[in-house]
Design a protein that fits this description.
Layout: H1 2-12, H2 15-21, H3 25-62, H4 66-69, H5 84-92, H6 95-126, H7 132-144, H8 151-159, H9 166-171, H10 182-189, H11 196-208, H12 213-220, H13 225-236, H14 238-254, H15 257-262, H16 269-274, H17 276-288, H18 296-331
């Protein structure tokens, strides 16, 4: 009872009275906490600004006319505000058609990759089979080795595609799959698509952290392996599957290597953006009737505008899926 009265009387004292009783310790503690908070705020603000500042510059430049680009007075706020750059960029990359194709291909490829990688990742996490460590080492190699290393092999393989020599035996020639979407879907179905090794690794780590008692209880209740996987394990893995799907969609959305190799005849946003400067030169030449040199600043302006048009759908996607994305990152551990 005495301690309660003492604490109550101490709490009613002013800050300076309590600081005097503590010999100045309370003031030093408050100053230290405030200083740490200010330093933390400055560091976080600086890091965020470093990340966001290039995007803010692109937004500013995208609304400038060519006259503003060379005006030393204009820095961030356009003097002659215009949306013509967006209309021009949309025309150069055939935005509506490219947006539809990119959305369709990214969705189907991402869904196929995650479906196959989930099966493989679950197998690595829960089952024992011959040469398991060797095959998982191959998965790590898929992550480490850049796809450009096997570009020539992929080109030759799908240019002269044959399954066990059956096509050449029957028809006398191989099948040319170049220029079609089929090779990329085949690679994704075989877990050799873009970043598939990383998805297998992430899903494996997630399943390894799920207690095995859940599966054992399902087996006791009469569930088979496949039914347990569908009804017990998949619902538990929604966060990591959402994150991997987002990664797969975004990487496919912005991919240039596989898109040029397998989808070169299809208008995509990523390939259209990579050629937007050349398309701008051809467009200006067609309008003026003569070959015209395009300024670097204006080329960069149109490129920045096209880049913004590409990343806006991704930002919207992440805004809707951010909760599941953060949950999966926080719950996926590194369990070897």
């Amino acid at each position: 009872m005495t301690n309660v009265k003492t604490n109550s009387a101490y709490a009613k004292q002013s800050f300076w009275e309590r600081n005097k009783q503590s010999g100045g310790y309370l003031l030093r503690k408050v100053i230290g906490e405030r200083a740490v908070s200010i330093i933390r705020f400055i560091l976080l603000f600086g890091m965020c600004f470093m990340i966001i500042q290039p995007i803010l510059n692109k937004i500013s430049v995208s609304f400038m006319t060519e006259q503003d680009l060379y005006n030393p007075v204009v820095i961030s706020i356009p003097e002659h505000f215009t949306t013509a750059n967006y209309r021009l960029a949309a025309e150069l990359i055939s935005f509506k058609e490219a947006l539809f194709n990119s959305t369709l291909i990214s969705l189907t490829i991402a869904a196929l990759q995650i479906a196959m990688c989930t099966l493989v990742g679950y197998g690595f996490a829960r089952f024992e089979f011959p040469l398991k460590k060797f095959w998982f080492a191959c998965v790590i190699l898929v992550i480490l080795i850049p796809p450009q290393t096997i570009a020539s092999s992929l080109h030759l393989h799908f240019r002269f595609f044959d399954v066990l020599g059956l096509s050449q035996l029957i028809t006398g020639q191989t099948i040319n799959l170049r220029g079609s979407k089929l090779p990329y879907y085949l690679m994704s179905a075989g877990c050799m698509g873009l970043k598939n090794g990383l998805y297998i690794y992430m899903i494996r780590q997630y399943f390894r952290n799920i207690p095995g008692d859940l599966e054992e209880a399902a087996y006791v209740d009469g569930c088979g392996t496949f039914k347990t996987f569908i009804r017990i394990m998949l619902p538990q893995a929604k966060p990591i599957l959402t994150s991997c799907f987002l990664f797969a969609f975004v990487w496919q959305w912005t991919d240039g290597f596989y898109s040029r190799m397998f989808l070169g005849n299809t208008k995509l946003i990523s390939t259209g953006l990579s050629r937007i400067v050349d398309s701008l030169g051809a467009y200006i030449q067609r309008i003026n009737g003569v070959k015209t040199t395009i300024s670097i600043a204006y080329s960069n302006c149109i490129l920045a505008t096209g880049t913004l048009m590409i990343i806006v759908p991704l930002i919207v996607l992440y805004l809707f899926a951010q909760r599941a994305f953060v949950e999966s990152i926080s719950s996926t551990g590194i369990k070897m």
